[in-house]
Design goal:
Elements (H helix, E strand, L loop, with lengths): L11 H9 L13 E2 H11 L4 H8 L3 E4 L2 E2 L5 E2 L3 E3 L2 E3 L3 E3 L4 E6 L4 E7 L8 H6 L8 E2 L3 H8 L6 E7 L3 H7 L1 H10 L1 H25 L6 E5 L12 H13 L3 H5 L3 E5 L8 H7 L3 E3 L10 H8 L4 E6 L4 H4 L2 H15 L5 E5 L9 H13 L3
Parallel strand pairs: 1-6, 2-11, 4-7, 11-12, 12-13, 13-14, 14-15, 15-16
Antiparallel strand pairs: 3-10, 5-6, 7-8, 8-9
Helix pairs in contact: 6-7, 7-8, 8-9, 14-15
């Protein structure tokens, strides 16, 4: 398809797949991940009620689908992304982790208040824990969700498989889990293995129930902080890498694209993710040590695509619309010079981000022509 200037306009799905093949599309693909507060602000500002209409208005190329949680009464779903909105419900989730809502002047976040495996001392206790069951998830809704998303134009469809680092420490407690990796690694490994087995089965079932219409399997787990990794690369490789690979390698071998999210500085293990078959690394936190766009592109860009990178610590919340537009163009020129870059914020758009800056980010990306 061509516009009035005889410039090729690609369909969203083709735009994403061309980019992930390290070729130049008509423009960079864009993705949308936001907190519910900024999502509602955008809708009010644009006078839009329907979520899919909002995503289409912004030119979003990647859409998220999830199974419907129908588990035991009183339980809630785990933190997840649906229709571009990041949810984190308060209450007890299906892993047994409890959260409560914490408000600040901008928005509401949920903080963990109970780790169900904090008391565990033996492998038998890990095995005997009430682990979630696939029957707690209704996959029958996936085909209808995807049909609605693709009604006017085909998009790249993403399913979130899970996390084999964050979910285990949510269940055990971060400090306790990190100590386990040194003093009681058999317990840390057992929890990670159980989580990986369930998440892999759930993703496989989603692919089957959607008639193969899922294009990208997303997994994740924040391994990095601002100045370095939360745990040593050696510990991660020895005890966690195998289970992270269970949410990447099998899906890559099926012909799907793979996506991993980790905030912070994770330079020491990027090569490991490439080895596992990773296609897309997210979110490229630009203020974190070593996560410089040019460095990442120069060293890994021929083998890996990048997602995110638009600074959500300073530029998006505190900059001008011109600052945002210039940063988006700069990132495209570096990370997307031969394809391989999807424009998105470096974390979910936060409630204190001006609506005008959000729109400037999408406008700059959608108006960019290769």
């Amino acid at each position: 398809m061509y516009d009035e200037r005889n410039i090729l306009i690609m369909m969203s799905y083709d735009r994403v797949m061309t980019t992930l093949s390290h070729n130049k599309p008509d423009r960079p693909p864009v993705d949308y991940i936001a907190t519910s507060e900024i999502n509602e602000k955008l809708k009010r500002y644009l006078n839009i009620e329907d979520q899919e209409e909002l995503l289409n208005h912004l030119g979003v190329d990647m859409h998220y689908v999830n199974a419907r949680f129908i588990g035991s009464e009183g339980l809630v779903g785990e933190p997840y992304i649906n229709s571009g909105i990041r949810y984190s419900d308060a209450g007890r989730d299906f892993w047994g982790v409890e959260r409560r809502a914490i408000k600040n002047k901008f928005g509401t976040y949920s903080e963990i208040t109970y780790n169900p495996l904090a008391h565990v001392k033996t492998l038998e206790e890990v095995e005997e824990y009430r682990w979630p069951d696939l029957s707690w998830f209704d996959m029958s809704c996936l085909k209808e969700k995807i049909k609605r998303i693709n009604e006017k134009e085909k998009h790249a469809i993403i399913f979130f498989a899970g996390s084999v680092f964050e979910t285990p420490w949510y269940m055990r407690g971060l400090e306790r889990f990190l100590i386990d990796l040194v003093e009681y690694p058999e317990i840390a490994v057992a929890i990670s293995r159980k989580v990986a087995e369930f998440c892999k089965k759930r993703a496989m079932r989603a692919i089957e129930e959607s008639d193969g219409q899922i294009d990208i399997i997303r997994s994740g787990g924040d391994l990095g902080a601002q100045d370095g990794m939360i745990l040593s690369p050696e510990l991660w490789r020895k005890y966690i890498k195998q289970w992270s690979g269970e949410l990447i390698k099998p899906f890559k071998e099926m012909g799907l694209k793979t996506f991993y999210h980790s905030c912070g500085s994770i330079v020491p293990v990027i090569e490991d993710f490439i080895e596992m078959g990773l296609d897309i690394l997210d979110p490229i936190q630009p203020k974190a040590k070593g996560m410089d766009a040019k460095y990442l592109k120069d060293y890994f860009g021929s083998r890996l695509s990048f997602h995110g990178g638009v600074d959500e610590q300073k530029i998006l919340p505190l900059g001008t619309t011109k600052d945002v537009e210039e940063e988006v163009v700069r990132l495209i020129n570096i990370l997307g010079k031969d394809g391989g870059y999807i424009v998105a914020p470096a974390n979910a758009l936060q409630p204190d981000t001006p609506v005008e800056n959000v729109l400037a980010m999408f406008r700059a990306a959608c108006e960019y022509k290769y």
